[in-house]
Every structure is written in C-alpha cells, then in structure tokens.
Specification:
Low-confidence stretches: none
Structural class: alpha+beta
Helix content: 25-40%
Number of domains: 2
Strand order of the largest sheet: 6-3-10
Mean pLDDT: 89
Distance between the termini: 39 Å
Largest sheet: 3 strands, antiparallel
Number of strands: 10
Length: 184
C-alpha cells in the first residue's frame, strides 16, 4: 500500500481522530489486499486502541470520521462503535451510521468481540490463559480440594456460559467459576 496515496487521501491526518503526528498505514482485515482501498492512515493512539484497551472518550471522534466516504474508515468506525455499544453516545452514532451491504459484511467479518469471560477483577479471559485460584475449591466427584494459589494453565472457555472456564487441576479436567480466579 502506498503511504503517499493514504497521506493524500487523508490530508496528512489520522482518518479517525484527525491527529497529525506519527501516522502509519493500518491494514483493515480480515484479508486486506495491500492497497489503499483496504487501509486507513492512523495515529499510534487509534492503532493501539483498535486492538487493545480503549479510552472510551478518545472514540468520540467517530462522530465526525464515521461519515468518511472511504470504506476502510467506515469499517473501522463501525467496528469501534460496535465495541463501544455499552455507551449511549456510541449506540446513538451507530444508529445513524449507514454502510452499504458489501461494506457492512466487511465490517462484521473482522469485528473484535470482547470476551464475555472475565476473572474476579473484571479482566477478560481468553482460551489458553493461565489463571490462579483465589479460594480453596472442593472438586465435586474428584475427592480433593483445589487450593488457593494453584495455577491453572491453558484454560478453555465454556462458550455457552461466560461464568465457567475449564482447566486441569491435579491431572483432572474441571469446570471452574470465573469469580474464583484471577488472570496471571
């Protein structure tokens, strides 16, 4: 993708928040073709928050950028508004946002889903994480108690119940309530 093409299109400003420093191309997946048609010019703040922790107030900039005529910018705006759907202002903006059918399919295909599985501190859990028990837990049918402080490596998520994870303790695969673990 050509940086000069993106810079010209964006007017040398972040296409989401209008910042003007340290701008870089951001490929908008899931399968970007490497051209300016599937990339946006973004600042480091926007790039980092798209894939990581968010500062909710930073994304109020979407009230302007969601009206971009460029599909990659529209896709990123839709995805961020989708992630921010707990905020009333974001729901209002999302209700106003219109994407043609093809762009909407693109936006939904790469939407970042927040984990519904959260540890006792509210940190999101993912399959493969290591957690530590914060309470002694009697294991039903196992004949033992999983002790507080025990590390459970390589957990798996119980998809139908965000309050449950699975992991191995003393060689047995058990279901553990997420309220009794903290992410390591």
């Amino acid at each position: 993708m050509s940086l000069s093409t993106l810079q010209a299109r964006a007017g040398n400003a972040c296409e989401l928040c209008a910042a003007t420093t340290d701008l870089t191309p951001f490929a908008v997946g899931p399968a970007p073709d490497g051209t300016a048609m599937t990339a946006a010019l973004l600042c480091p703040t926007c790039s980092a928050q798209i894939v990581g922790e968010m500062d909710v107030n930073h994304w109020r900039c979407l009230s302007a950028s969601m009206w971009s005529e460029h599909a990659p910018v529209q896709v990123l705006a839709w995805r961020m508004l989708d992630r921010l759907s707990d905020e009333s202002w974001a729901r209002d903006l999302s209700d106003m946002l219109y994407l043609d059918d093809e762009t909407l399919v693109w936006a939904k295909s790469g939407a970042i889903k927040e984990s519904l599985h959260k540890d006792s501190n509210g940190a999101p859990l993912a399959a493969g994480d290591t957690v530590v028990l914060i309470k002694d837990l009697p294991v039903k049918g196992g004949g033992f108690t999983a002790k507080r402080g025990t590390a459970v490596r390589g957990i798996s998520l119980v998809e139908e119940n965000p309050a449950h994870i699975e992991g191995r303790v003393e060689g047995q695969r058990i279901v553990i309530l997420t309220e009794y673990v903290k992410k390591r």
